[in-house]
Every structure is written in C-alpha cells, then in structure tokens.
Amino acid sequence: MGGKYRVTGAAYPRMSRKRSPRRIVFAVLGSVLALALLGYGALQLIDVFQGDSPKRNTAAGAKDCPTKAADTAAKRGPEAAAAATPKPAVVLPKPADITVNVYNATPRAGLAKAVGDELRKRGFNVGNVGNAPADFDKKVPGTGILLGSPTTDKAAYSVLGTQLAGTTQQTDARETAEIDLILGDAFKDLSTKEDADKALALLANPVPAPAAKC
C-alpha cells in the first residue's frame, strides 16, 4: 500500500478474534471437574491403603463382639462365662409323665370332669376327678392352685401351668409326685390347644437375652 496508508517499520498490526464467553465458562467448569475427580481418586487411594473405613471397622467390630463378650465374661468368673455361653434347649417332662388330679372348688357343676377330659386329650395322665377338699372348697378366688409335694419336679408345674394362666403353686406333706389342679372362681376355661403348645415351645426354648452392645 502506498500514499497515506503506507505501512512503515518492521511491526505489523495483528488481528485476533475476541474470546467467546461460552468458551471461558466451559474451560473453568472443565478445570473444576478435573480437580474434583483428582481429589476423589486421592481419597479412595488413601482409604484403600489405610484400611480403616467406617464400614470395615463396623464389620470387624461386629465379628469381634462375641469374642470380646466371652473374654470379658471369662475374666469375671465361671458363673459369668456360663451365662455368656448359649444355653441348650430345656428338657421338660412329657404331659404323659405328669399325673394330674382335677378338683372343683367352684359352684359350677361338672367343671372338674370337663377339664379332666380335656387334659386327658392333651396327653396328661389324669387321676382323681371331683370336688375340692374342704380346705379349698369355695375358698379359691383365683384361676386355680397347683398343689404338690415339695420334691415334685418344678418343670412339671411349669408344663401343667401352660394349660391355664394365672395359677399359683403350693405344697403340702404328700410324698407322691402327682399334682392337684384345684379350679377357682376366676377360672373360665383352659388355654386353647394352640396357645398352650406355643407356651410349651417357649418354655423349652426360652428367648435369649439381648446381646451386649460393643
């Protein structure tokens, strides 16, 4: 070019495009995302090498908890160690091994026979059936009394007690193993067969106490 628009000197003006705002925003977002990914990856690597994540610690603690409980119980003594050991199922006498005398201490006629017949159907060995002795006749306000010898197996009382709720236990001077079931004024009916069977199952396999927190 010549004349008035002649270019002189060794420097030439450079023409450059203006940077788009969108490109700047995308560049900034890309940098932030890359830094976030790098930080997350670094945290994962630290967790792998240190090996003490909360989940891993929780799992390890859960596995060690029973062992710690047993060790603690052992240090406290034989009784505590025995309590920490899972208990086997309780061996209960069978209904057929329990002799029951059914006596009616209420004004309701035929009650002892009806209850005796039902207990016999449920497998119990039913002995005497009739009215209650004078010491108890019309003098039992509750559901009933289980009366037996001091030497009678306590489990026999428990097994018979599953057949009706609310009974009390008493002993007398007898030397035989049979148990008297003396029906009182509050007696309505025996527990259903289903409920009695559930109570027997729970009696044989009691629910263990909640485990100690670690």
Notes on the protein architecture:
This protein has 214 residues and is α/β, with parallel strands linked by helices. The protein has six helices and five strands. It has helices spanning 21-50, 54-76, 78-84, 111-121, 154-161, 193-204, and strands at 99-104, 125-131, 144-148, 168-171, 179-183. The protein has a five-stranded mixed sheet with strand order 2-1-5-3-4, covered by helices on one side. Helix 2 (54-76) packs across helix 3. 17% of the residues are buried.
Strand content range: 5-15%
Q: Which consecutive residue ranges, at least 5 long each, have pLDDT under 50?
A: none
Query: Pairing-aware structural class of the strands and helices?
Result: alpha/beta
Principal-axes geometry comes out as elongated
State the oligomer. Answer: single chain
Main beta-sheet annotation: 5 strands, mixed
What is the alpha-carbon Rg in Å? 42 Å
Mean of residue pLDDT values: 80
State the total count of DSSP E strands.
5
* Contiguous helical run count: 6
Spatial sequence of strands, sheet with the most strands: 2-1-5-3-4
* Helical percentage: 40-55%
Question: What is the terminal-to-terminal distance?
Answer: 92 Å
H/E element string? HHHEHEEHEEH
